[in-house]
Design goal:
Number of strands: 12
Number of helices: 16
Oligomer: single chain
Low-confidence stretches: 1-7, 138-145, 389-421
Radius of gyration: 25 Å
Order of helices and strands: HHHHHHHHHHEHEHHEEEEEEEEEEHHH
Structural class: alpha+beta
């Protein structure tokens, strides 16, 4: 490219950093630098802070802190190619500890060596603007119901005498673990902004036009939070399959409505205590007499605290769906984790009561204020994977037993299923 900031620079740190990238990655980075530098009116020697923030769509204290780290706190306002290359080598190609340490320093927006509550508030506000109001700095259009506070409530701070509470490195990593959407966003700030940018994807919520958004428990921030634990295809679009205020608190209606879905579902519950939580069911809800599911399922909290609780591998008690069983050892209802009659989350088949206990399946706490819960509103959203519906439409209908899995499971229990095939 013909300038002192090219990959051929004799800067030893730059030469070492370049080894972390493929030739194509280096070419792409150089092309990006040249493009942004040309917009900075710097004779293609550096990128100005304003051009940098405009391109990467990140503003506020988080953007300022990122620029400080990239330029190693130089105050000349000149972000060079070497700066960008060396930072990306650590931030994106470093060891896990190096990356986590960089992100930890990044969140210390004041740069005073202490990660405080006010630092995290500024970080979350910057992320919210970038995700929900890109290019419209400070708009934060829907900061109701303590949107940022629910994420802060998942954090652990240590008392520091009369000063502001601070967060240790270990507690910061734990905070990131239960907030994958936040962690993904913090780890992709130097990724060119596009729909696949990790941490910036918000599932589109599809629901009937005659339903007011005010009736819905799930908001776009909640969907972003949950979607951070999913693949890109599973977090593109969600369709409302069931809402108790519209369809009634009925298990049969619930099962009937969600049977139209083709994939995983997001179950959201608001109880009479005002707490909101739920679970992601990776497999369809089907009548079973035992736990089933796979390690993609998880529990989550939305209010007053936002957290994701993934499977620990301690057991396979992931998903539960039982109805019309007469045995006390087979509780009728739907649930996640734990064990029979002591679930991580359980709603009875009457949809009028349930419980939530701490469980090793997801290393999750009691999700509400008390273990016994009374559902006030229940929603269920189905993930829409594009192209899947057309593929399923072309599949043969199969036998009656294949189409009605509840009947098939009953026959299996009495040993008649094979005789009918």
């Amino acid at each position: 490219m013909g300038n002192a900031q090219s990959p051929s620079s004799k800067n030893p740190r730059s030469m070492t950093a370049s080894r972390a990238f493929s030739k194509q990655e280096l070419d792409d980075l150089q092309a990006l630098f040249v493009s942004l530098a040309s917009q900075s009116q710097s004779s293609s020697k550096f990128i100005s802070p304003s051009v940098f923030q405009s391109y990467f769509k990140i503003h506020g204290p988080l953007a300022s802190r990122l620029i400080d780290l990239i330029t190693q706190n130089r105050r000349d306002g000149m972000l060079t190619y070497d700066d960008l290359l060396i930072t990306k080598a650590t931030y994106e190609k470093g060891t896990r500890d190096e990356i986590e340490e960089f992100v930890y320093q990044l969140c210390d927006v004041t740069g005073d060596g202490v990660l405080s509550r006010s630092d995290l508030e500024a970080v979350l506000a910057s992320i919210h603007d970038a995700v929900f109001s890109p290019g419209n700095v400070g708009s934060s259009s829907s900061l109701d119901r303590d949107v940022l506070q629910v994420f802060l409530n998942a954090a652990t701070f240590a008392k520091q005498g009369e000063g502001e509470d601070s967060m240790s490195f270990a507690d910061f990593k734990n905070w990131c673990a239960v907030l994958p959407s936040v962690r993904k966003a913090l780890g992709s700030l130097l990724t060119p902004p596009d729909p696949s940018r990790p941490g910036f994807q918000v599932p589109q919520l599809q629901y009937p036009e005659d339903i007011s958004s005010d009736m819905l428990i799930l908001r776009k921030e909640d969907a972003w939070h949950i979607g951070g634990a999913l693949s890109q295809s599973e977090a593109e679009e969600w369709k409302l399959l069931y809402h108790s205020a519209i369809n009634g608190l009925s298990f049969n209606t619930f099962v009937g409505n969600i049977s139209s879905g083709d994939g995983p579902t997001v179950l959201v519950i608001k109880d009479t205590e005002g707490c909101i939580y739920g679970g992601y069911a990776s497999q369809q809800w089907e009548r079973q007499s035992a736990f089933y599911g796979d390690m993609r399922s998880f529990l989550f909290q939305l209010y007053p605290r936002a957290s994701i609780f993934r499977p620990t591998g301690a057991n396979n008690n992931l998903q539960w769906c039982a109805v019309n069983f007469s045995s006390d050892s087979i509780p009728n209802g739907i649930g996640f984790g734990g064990r029979e009659n002591h679930f991580g989350l359980f709603i009875s088949a009457n949809f009028d009561r349930g419980h939530t206990f701490s469980c090793t399946t997801f290393n999750s706490p009691c999700l509400s204020k008390s273990s016994q819960i009374l559902p006030e509103v229940i929603e269920c959203w189905g993930t829409v994977v594009k192209g899947l519906q057309n593929e399923k439409a072309e599949l043969p209908k199969g036998t009656v037993l294949e189409r009605f899995k509840e009947d098939r499971n009953m026959l299996k229990m009495v040993g008649l299923a094979n005789a009918s095939e």
